[in-house]
Structure formats: C-alpha cells, structure tokens
Write a structure and sequence with these properties.
The protein is built from 22 helices and 17 strands. It has helices at about 15-30, 35, 80-95, 110, 130-140, 155-160, 170-180, 195-200, 205-225, 230-235, 245-265, 290-305, 325-340, 355-375, 380-385, 390-405, 450-465, 480-495, 510-515, 530-545, 560-565, 580-595; strands at about 40, 45, 70-80, 100-105, 120-125, 150, 185, 190, 235-240, 275-280, 310, 470-475, 500, 505, 520-525, 550-555, 570-575. The chain has a nine-stranded parallel beta sheet. The longest helix has 23 residues, at about 355-375. The termini are far apart.
Length: about 600
C-alpha cells in the first residue's frame, strides 16, 4: 500500500497535554514543575516548555513583513565631508547597502555623497545642529533620485540622556517633514528606543516607552500643523536588540502590532514607517571581546526574523577603541551572510505560526500595552520622565538584571563565565563601575561592575608586579574533585588572577601541607561532600599551621560552615555564590598580603 499521501508521523498516536504532563511529573520525581521547566523572563512572562494544538494560541495581527530589501547599515563618523565620503565609498564596495552618517555640524552634501548611487544605497543622517540647512541641501542634491533612509535629530534620545528637552527641535522636525515631502522613502522623524534597553530596561518597557514618546511627539507636531497621517508616514524607529533571542523576535513583532493599534486610534490605517534595529551596548564585553561577534550574530538574526527594515551591527571592538577596518568589515559581513547565505530576509515571515513565538509576542504586546496605557493615564511620556517614573521603573529591572549576572544565573561568556585566562586586558579599557543618575538614562554595558572588579586586579598587578596565583588543591573522590576544580577554575578566573590547573594529591593532609607551602596566594580545596565531612577540619588546621595569611576557599557547600570559618576558612565557591561579592572579598585580602 502506498504511503505517498499519508500525513507525516501519522503512524504514531497523538499525545495529549494531560498525558505529557503525567510523564513529565513522573520524570521530575517530585521536583517543582514551574521551577524546573517554566522559564521566567524579567518582562514578567512565563514561557512553557512545550506547546501543542491544545494551547490555541491566538496570533497577533500586523506584526510586520519580513523585509525583502533589508538594509545593512554601517555607521560613519564624519569629521570632514571628504573623509566621510571616502569611508562611505569603501563601505559600499564592501557590500553595505546602507550608510548612517554621524554629523556634528553641517558639511557639503555634494562632497559627502559624491559617487554614491542614491537609488541603490540607503543614506541616513544623525545630526543635532543645522539640521534644516543640511536637509535643504540634501533634498536639492537628491532631487532626481529615489532618496531612501532617515534623519535623526536626537529629539528623544538627547532628552532621556540629558534630562533637558529642547522644544525648538519640534519646529526643526516639522520643517524637515515639509522639506522631505517629495521623498516618501526618506523618514524625517526618528523615535529612538535604544536608550531604554541599553540602560537596563526589559523588552516590555522599551516598547511601551517608545510608543509613549511617539504619542508625545504626535501631540507636539500636531500643534505645529503637521497632519497625523503625515507624521506616521515619516516615522523611523530605532530600537536596540538584546540577547534573549526568541523574546527579541517577539518584541519586534509586538512593537509592529501595537504601533498599528496606536495608529488606528489616530485614524491612520496605512503605515509606511521603518524600523532600524541596532545591536545593544548592554550586552557587549571588553573582555574576550571576540565573543561580541557571536552576540551580534544572534541579535541580528532575531531582529531580521522580527521584521525590521534595517540592521546596524556595531564592530565587536567598538566599546574600547575606534573600530578597525577589519572589525567594521566583519560586522557588515554578519548581515550579508545571514541575508545571502542563510536566506534571512528572503523568506516571507518564517516565524509566523510558531506557537512558542506567537505566545511570546502576544504576552509582550499585552504587557507593553498595559504599561503604555498606565504612563498615558498618569500624564504621558514627558510627565512620567520629568517625575522620574520611567527612570525608576528601568532602575528596578536593571538592578534585577545585574544581580542575576553577579549570581551567574544570567551567563555571559567572557564576563561572568568561561573567562579567557590567556587574555591580557589593559587597565584603561576596564570600567571603574556603573554610576547611575536618577534623573537621566545612561546607556551602559551590563558588565561594568565585573569590569571594575577586574580593574582592581590589573591595578594591583601594575603596582606590585605580581599577578595573584590561585592553586586548586584536590584530593579524594575523582569525579567530584574534578568537577569542583573545573567550577572553581571558571569562577575565580573572572577576577583576572592566575588560576593554575587542578593539582591532585593523594590525601587531604598532603594537599593541605603542600598547598600551604606553595607560591599560591589563594588556595581552593576541591573534593566531595563526604571527603569534606571526613577531612575538611583537619585540612584547615594543617593549612593554617603553616600559612596564616593565604586566602583559603572551599569548592562546595559544607554543612559545618561556621566551624570551618572559625578554623580559618575564608569562604566558599558554589552555584549560589555571588561572583562580585566573593571575588571582591578575595581581592581585598590578597591586596593586604601583597602590599604588606
């Protein structure tokens, strides 16, 4: 009998959610289902481990269209028109189809865009001064072309980062809208939301506050006589891309859906806005910086699948130096590879219908709408920012994020997990710590506090010419001692200390004696719980009889912690240990030893 027309997997009986839950409950052996399998995100949504047709997920409407003409942007800082042109020509030759010119002042448009085909290349501009004069020259230069792109005067981004709103910018934007009226593909109003995510906000907050700021601008521009339909036709949104891959896909889809809902309230049914997604500052690292390439890749993937119109990927080394030709080229190649070789942007809305992503998108949209409405009910965007409501709400989420990073519950490669111990990091690229201003938003890396801790180590090395040595002294049960030594190696490596590979001993007595006599400044006891019960007390006594000032740690969670501490144990490293608190305490003790 032919199987040609049989449904795939039809020979297997369907499994109901009830049957699946019964099996999972049995496999969990009494463990809490929610704690073990339900993923809780800081947006307040709970993601189930499995979805089926029984879940009856409702699909969001107006989630956008996967762009068939995705713009791959490179940002160029313009010092002179000639220099900016040279860099732009180079970018186009390297495969970029979009340029963002960052201008501090008006320059010659003819010289800046000389040799650039405006019909083929999208050109956008970020300029805060002389924007009207610049745009007047631009439209005159581009009169016979299909000018595409946007202009960003920083009306929102400057306000939220300085706390001072420049009311004259509204008149400037109104004039820009009029000047660019003959270029429907060039957007004169840019609403930025990157500052929220880069200051520690979650995805729900980024969407809500961006839409709140849009309503604020609509009201201000309407007072200048700009029609609502014209405002929506001229919109470009600049949003950041975070690390949570599927949640970010859902974020962009939810934003499109809510934007359409807001537009409907203003009587606008047709939208021609654009969304430009930029890799976030928050997720980047100055230690093991090459890992930023991986972060940028997944961020770009989620943005493209979330139906954005353009992607700007920062060079992986931008956070600590001026990007090189190589790092800029690699950044641009990420989107090119995704588009040309992985067919991102060439398949129509590939995530539509995915139960998981539809659920994430719907929940984000639901929560963002509630927050958006709450801000509007309390007086709107300007009032909420002036009374610091927005800043306080973001600060609350930021502190939760930083705590998860410090506890290593949010793993960041090269930052709080899997440090590159072969890497040498210059002191001047490491942060001194994150200082928050309650009145403004400060885009920052999530790693600033850990960088500051690493900076203390590098300054100590520069001052004493000694890099603290860590010895992993193991004995007893083979499997447990190796597992705990590996954990301690990874954990303490974040500090920048010279962590040596595990050194095994035949007995606890030998381990205590030899490690106490070694050149190490920090010794970590690595063994099993049973071995600790039998010999930890003897180990510490023997160790302290020889080494009074060395830092002594234990990998694990001993039951008799108080007794061991009284005998001379300085601390423990385990899954619940806070990396910042623990390593800072170790640094302080090592500093006293080295400087005495």
């Amino acid at each position: 009998m032919s199987d040609k027309n049989k449904a795939l997997f039809s020979e297997f009986p369907p499994v109901s959610t009830e049957q699946w839950m019964e099996r999972v409950t049995a496999d969990l052996k009494g463990a809490d289902f929610d704690k073990k399998l339900v993923w809780k995100n800081l947006t307040g949504i709970n993601i189930q481990p499995c979805y089926s047709i029984e879940n009856k997920i409702e699909q969001l409407q107006n989630t956008g269209e996967n762009s068939q003409s995705l713009v791959n942007y490179r940002s160029i800082t313009v010092t002179t028109a000639e220099n900016g042109n040279k860099l732009a020509i180079k970018a186009v030759e390297e495969g970029m189809n979009g340029i963002i010119f960052q201008l501090k002042e008006n320059v010659s448009i003819a010289n800046l865009l000389n040799g650039i085909d405006l019909n083929a290349t999208t050109v956008s501009f970020e300029i805060t001064d002389d924007a009207v004069a610049f745009t007047t020259d631009l439209v005159a230069f581009a009169k016979d072309s299909n000018l595409k792109g946007y202009i960003n005067t920083g009306v929102i981004s400057n306000y939220v980062t300085t706390g001072s709103f420049n009311a004259s910018q509204i008149e400037v934007i109104a004039e820009l809208v009029k000047l660019t009226a003959d270029f429907p593909n060039f957007k004169a109003i840019t609403v930025s939301g990157t500052e929220y995510l880069d200051s520690g906000a979650n995805q729900v907050q980024e969407i809500a506050y961006t839409l709140n700021s849009l309503v604020f601008l609509i009201e201000k521009l309407s007072e200048k006589g700009i029609e609502t339909q014209t405002i929506f036709n001229n919109l470009n949104f600049k949003l950041a891309i975070g690390l949570e891959y599927f949640v970010e896909i859902g974020k962009f889809r939810a934003f499109n859906s809510l934007l359409a809902e807001v537009a409907t309230k203003y009587g606008v049914s047709e939208l021609t806005n654009t969304i430009t997604a930029k890799t976030s500052i928050w997720s980047k690292s100055v230690t093991d910086a090459e890992t930023n390439l991986l972060r940028c890749t997944t961020e770009a993937m989620s943005a493209i699948l979330g139906n954005v119109d353009g992607v700007l990927i920062d060079a992986y080394d931008k956070e600590f130096k001026n990007p090189s030709d190589f790092s800029s080229r690699i950044a641009g190649n990420i989107t090119t590879i995704l588009r040309e070789e992985s067919y991102f942007g060439k398949v129509s809305n590939p995530v539509d219908g995915s139960y998981y992503i539809e659920e994430v998108s719907s929940k984000i949209a639901e929560k963002a709408l509630v927050l958006f409405q709450a801000i509007e009910a309390d007086g709107g965007f300007y009032t909420a920012f002036e009374n610091e409501t927005i800043q306080q709400q973001i600060a609350e989420i930021r502190l939760k994020k930083l705590k998860l990073i410090s506890q290593r519950r949010t793993p960041m490669v090269g930052i709080n997990k899997y440090p590159n111990l072969m890497e040498t990091v210059a002191v001047d690229v490491l942060s001194k710590g994150g200082a928050a201003d309650s009145k403004t938003l400060t885009p920052r890396r999530a790693s600033l506090e850990i960088e500051a801790m690493r900076r203390v180590t590098e300054e100590l090395v520069a001052e004493t010419k000694v890099r603290p040595i860590v010895q992993l002294a193991s004995f007893g049960n083979l499997n447990m001692r190796k597992a705990r030594a590996a954990f301690a190696y990874d954990f303490i490596g974040v500090s920048g200390f010279d962590v040596h590979q595990e050194e095994s001993f035949n007995s606890a007595e030998e381990a205590a004696t030899e490690s106490a006599k070694s050149d190490a400044h920090v010794v970590v006891i690595c063994s099993s719980d049973q071995d600790y019960d039998e010999s930890a007390v003897a180990f510490i006594k023997a160790f302290r009889a020889i080494a009074k000032n060395k830092v002594l740690l234990l990998a694990g969670a001993p039951k008799n912690m108080d007794e061991l501490t009284e005998l001379g144990l300085d601390g423990v490293v385990n899954m619940r240990t806070d990396v910042l608190v623990t390593l800072s305490a170790i640094q302080e003790k090592v500093q006293k030893t080295l400087k005495s």
